Every structure is written in structure tokens, then in C-alpha cells.
Amino acid sequence: KDLSLAEEVEARRKAEYYQKLLLASVTHDLRTPFNGILGALEIARSEERFTPKIEKLLELAESSAHLGLYLVNDLLDFSQSELGKLKIVKDNSSIVELVDECINMYKKNYDDRKITIQKLLQTKIPLIYTDKCRYQQILLNLISNAMKFTAVGGVTVLLNYHWDENKLYTSVEDTGVGLKPEHADKLFSLFGKIGETSSLNPRGIGLGLTICKRLCQAMGGEIYLDKTYTKGARFVFVVPNIIEEEKNELPDTANMPNQKNEVNMISVIVHENRPEENLTTRALMMKHECTCAKILIVDDSDTNMLVLQSYANAIGVTLDKARNGAEAIFQVSQRAKGCSICGIKKYLCIFMDIVMPIMDGIEATKKIKEMVEEKVIEKTTIIAMSAGEGSDEDYFAQGFSLNAPKPVSKVKFAEIVTVAFNKESYQLNQIRTI
Q1: Contact indicator for 212, 179 with CB cutoff of 8 Å
Q2: pLDDT value for 389
Q3: Contact (CB, 8 A) for 373 and 325
Q4: Rounded CA gap, 138 and 211, in Å?
Q5: Residue 340 phi, psi (nearest 5)
Q6: With the CA atoms of 50, 52, 58 and 59 taken in that order, what torsion angle do they form, in degrees rounded to the nearest 10?
Q7: Three-state SS sequence of the chain
Q8: Distance spanning both ends of the chain, measured CA to CA
Q9: Which pLDDT does position 322 carry in this prediction?
Q10: What is the reported pTM?
Q11: Exposed e or buried b for every residue in 66-88, given b needs 16+ CB within 10 A?
């Protein structure tokens, strides 16, 4: 009897584990079509002129796709937290800019409703050393909830920095239906939709606040419902800020494994508002006049291939394509024979998808590293096009030069290529060699 009970418990544990793996896999795959949608919209808006009405519709489609991607990220984060793999990547962040981006997304989607959405700075806000993507995920979840349950009035995002604690308090308050204090604990429990609010808003399964709580905890903060607020609902999440002298230094590359590997490690500052024509410098084009392929795109998605091909065309560079890691290794080997015109014997930049059939991107990068160490090929820059799983340092440790989570924007693609082509004359945040 005891044995059969133990077997039942073990079977249930395995079933739950495989369900979590399935969720992680499905949410990973959902990012691919969003990459295509956002890429296609970006190309269309940058290359064609539309009437104001069509332009507004395209803006709405783009902001809706971004919001949809954040929902997918929520599911991916939930599955990773269930598997114990949730990653936090911190950097100096301009919180005011992050809040503006989130508010603008919702303004485009709700501009037909008579609901205001605004931010209010209660104190001066310094740069915050935190995970900017996670911060925006939390904020977007809270704004989304506030907008759903507010019919009249508006939503306000309040920023308040407590200098004595070195903590940022972000509040999202609305003038909606409000919540009873006794419901506070249930709100943050798994699938914790409250019956009364479920009838008001039947959409969703109640994962949002659970994910917000887990993200806040992973960032060293907290989230709670302000029970003193009576004009609607007010949620507050707290993010600690690490002052300069307390920040952890980047790992010493001299002590990292496989230090003889010659793959360049780059972290790029991406300026999304910089005019695209300034990204590809005249010096870049003069140095690489030959039209042979300087970039290799490795991805099993036709959609991603088409988007990145359009990005390459826009900055005047030629690329080769591979649909899996095995094809990539073959292409790299062929490229090592050298171009008969310019003599270059390598791809200056390889964009590598992670999850692919036959051979994945991590295994392919490992083999390329081995070829570099054996001096079969020259060192090259390899960009991980991840689906958001894993931290930058995880990919750096596996030989990638940069982690560029999907979707990769047109501006970011151009800047990465510029850095890879013309490192010595470009302002880099950091360059390391392992």
C-alpha cells in the first residue's frame, strides 16, 4: 500500500514536471510569430507612406503586438519560475523612460475611451539598478488590470524614491470598482481570480499578479495592495536600488573557463531613437566594399529569415542563411576558404537562433568555438537570438558575444552589425575576450 502511494506521488510529480516543460515549450514557440508580426510592421512603417488613418491602425497593431508579447513573456516567466529557472538581469535603468513607454502602449490601445492615464513624480528619481524588462512586465500587468476595471476617471502611475531606504516605490492607482481588503491575500495566489471581479472581467485566468509577486521577490522587492486607498484600487511594488559602490563587478574573465577561446564578447548600448541612417557609417561601407556575405543568419523560421533579410537590405549588407546549427557549421567552414575579392575568411557577425532542429544554436556555437581554438577558422562575433530565457552571462559563458532576445528591432540589428563591422571606431559599453 505504501509502495503504491509512493508510486502515485512520483507519477503525479513527473506529470506536473512535464506539464511545466510543455508550458515553457509552447510559450517559447509563441514568440516566433510575434517576432514576425513586429518585424513586418516595423518594415512597413519605415519603408512606406500611409494615410493618417492607416498609420494609426498600424500603430495600434504594433502596440497590441507588443502587449501580446508581454503576455507571452508572463507565461514564459511563470513556467521558468515553476522550474526554478527565473533569471534577473540588472542594469542602470531610467525608470521615467520605462514608465513612459508603458503608458504610451496603453494610450494607443485605449485612446477611444474617456479614461486618462498619466504618471506623477512624487520625488526626484535617480537611475535604478534593476532588471528593466521585469520592471516593465510588472508595471504593464498592473496598468492592464487598472484599465480593465476602470470605466470612468483614470489611471495614475506614481513614482516615489525613498532615499533613506534606497528603494523605488511605484504605485498604480485607478478610479475603478476597487477591491475589498479581505481579498488582498487571494489576489496574489495562483489563479486567484475573485468571483466578483471575474464577472466584471471574464478574460484571463488570474496569473498576472502571481507573476508580478514572483518577479518582485526575484528582484529583491515586494508588491502589495494598499488597503487605505478607497477611490478604486492602488497596487504598490517596491524595487531596491543598489548604490554604485555596492554593485557587483562583472566576473573576471581571466578566471572564466575556456579562457583560450577567442570569441569576442560585446555588450552594446542600443539607442532606439537614433536615426537609422547614422547607424551604418561611411567608414564601415568603405572598409567592406566587397559584396560578399559578411553576415550569417541561422534560424529555422522563414518569417524571421525574411525580417532579418529586410533589415540587412536596409543597411546595404549581404548575408548568407542556414536553417540549423549543422548548416551553420558548414557555411562557416566554407567561408574560411576566403573571398577571392576581399580575402576575408570569416563572417563578421553570426546571428544564431537557440532552439532549432538537427542541431541547436548552443551546440553549434560550441563547435564553432572549438574550430577557433584549433585555428581552423578565425574568431568571429556570435549573437544569441534567444526567446528571453537565460541571462546574458549564461550566453556569454557559452561563447556568445551578445544576447539579443527576440524580437530584434531594425535599429538594434543595424547597430549590432555596425559594432561587429567597425569595433575600433565605435563607442562600446564593454568589450571582453574569453
Answers
A1: no
A2: 60
A3: no
A4: 8
A5: -70, -15
A6: 130
A7: CHHHHHHHHHHHHHHHHHHHHHHHHHHHHHHHHHHHHHHHHHHHHHHCCCCHHHHHHHHHHHHHHHHHHHHHHHHHHHHHHHCCCCCCCCEEECHHHHHHHHHHHHHHHHCCCCEEEEEEECCCCCCEEECHHHHHHHHHHHHHHHHHCCCCEEEEEEEEEECCCCEEEEEEEECCCCCCHHHHHHHCCCCCCCHHHHHHCCCCCCCHHHHHHHHHHHCCCEEEECCCCCCCCEEEEEEECCCHHHCCCCCCHHHCCCCCCCCEEEECCCCCCCCHHHCCCHHHHHHCCCCCCCEEEECCCHHHHHHHHHHHHHCCCCEEEECCHHHHHHHHHHHCCCCCCCCCCCCCEEEEECCCCCCCHHHHHHHHHHHHHCCCCCCCCEEEECCCCCCHHHHHHCCCCEECCCCCCHHHHHHHHHHHHCHHHCCCCEEEEC
A8: 56
A9: 93
A10: 0.56
A11: bbebbbbbbbbbbbbbbeeebbe
**What does the block give as the cell for 309?**
533579410
Query: Rounded to the nearest 10 degrees, how much is the dihedral formed by the CA atoms of 300, 302, 304, 307?
Result: 150
CA distance 62 to 41: 7
Rounded Cα–Cα distance for residues 428 and 266 (Å):
8
- Contacts of residue 112, defined as CB under 8 A and 6 or more positions apart, other chains included, come to none
pLDDT, averaged per 10 consecutive residues of the chain (434 residues), comes to: 66 66 62 77 77 80 77 70 72 91 78 79 91 89 86 91 94 88 68 45 55 88 90 93 51 35 37 39 47 88 83 86 93 88 86 89 93 89 79 83 83 85 44 28
Beta carbons of 328 and 350 less than 8 angstroms apart: yes
Q: 372 vs 82, 253, 431, CA distance in Å?
A: 38, 18, 18
